[in-house]
Amino acid sequence: MAANSLDRAKQAVRTQAWDALTTANTVHDASVHGRIPHFKGSDEAAARLAAHPVWQRASIVKAVPDKAQSPVRARALEEGKTVCMAVPKLASEKPFYLLDPAALTVPPAEAAASRTAAAIAPTVEVDALRPLDLIILGSVAVNRDGARIGKGAGYPDIEFALLTEAGLVTSETVVVTTVHSLQVTEIPIPTTRHDVGVDLIVTPEETIACANPHRPSGVDWSALTAERIAAIPALTARQVSWGLLA
Questions:
Q1: ∠223-225-230 over CA atoms, to 5°?
Q2: I need a surface site. Which of 82, 110, 113, 226 has the fewest CB within 10 A?
């Protein structure tokens, strides 16, 4: 599928999900279009995930900063799990916030808020992180094969690729998305080789295991413009380390 056709197909899936959520009044946002939906029931989805063995085994969790996943981040910190979150747009030489539950100066529920985390958590380089047990993604839509689609910015896929190349994402790392049931679609989701699939989908009512979701093995440089690489210091540093840039 050509790039323009792929983009249109992905946008059609997003629009269908956003419209369904809006019609059913199942989001907290005044307008859900263009966002990772802050869906009603995110607390229940977090509680369902917390009952799963993969959660109970996890000690290092990487989570997106979206509001829908705030209950997951808060629960992780409350249970003594270390949480890392990306700096917005990865626009820092140290592109991850590291929340150590033993070092929090505010309650976990406050620390889990993205703005608070940015104010209190140290930033670290990729190489300063430990291997990840669990990755929590937000989604606009996802299907039962594990194909997911975000709002289109692509940063979670770049983060995943960087962490994979650093050896921090392994075959033991489980990738999860928490969503409203209306975000689980039967519509085929077009994907590319840099799109990250999920192992588990957790809604307030259901946990869905996905068979053989796609995982990129590293950064897909062909999908990145020079401008985007230049805007993400970790990508530029990777090119320098490989001798691709002076």
A1: 125
A2: 226
- Asked if residues 196 and 148 have their Cβ atoms less than 8 Å apart, the reply is yes
Q: DSSP states of 166-194 as a string? A: TT-S-TT-EEEEE--GGGB-SS-----TT
pLDDT tens per residue, range 14-62: 999 999 999 999 999 889 999 999 999 999 999 999 999 999 999 999 9
CA–CA separation, 14 and 19 (whole Å): 9
Residue type for 141, please? A
Q: Are the C-beta atoms of residues 245 and 239 closer than 8 Å to each other?
A: yes
- What local confidence, expressed as pLDDT, does residue 246 receive? 45
Q: Where are the alpha helices (DSSP H) in the chain?
A: 3-24, 42-50, 53-57, 70-78, 108-111, 114-120, 155-165, 226-231, 233-241
Place of tokens 């996890």: 58
Does residue 184 have a pLDDT over 70?
Answer: yes
pLDDT at residue number 223:
85
- The identity of residue 170, as a single letter, is T
What tokens appear for 149 in the block? 């689609």
pTM over 0.85: yes
User: CA torsion sign, 55 to 61 to 67 to 70?
Assistant: positive
The Cα 65–Cα 43 span in angstroms is 15
Q: Please name the amino acid found at residue 239.
A: Q
Structure tokens at 166: 């650093």
**CA 95 centroid distance within chain:** 14
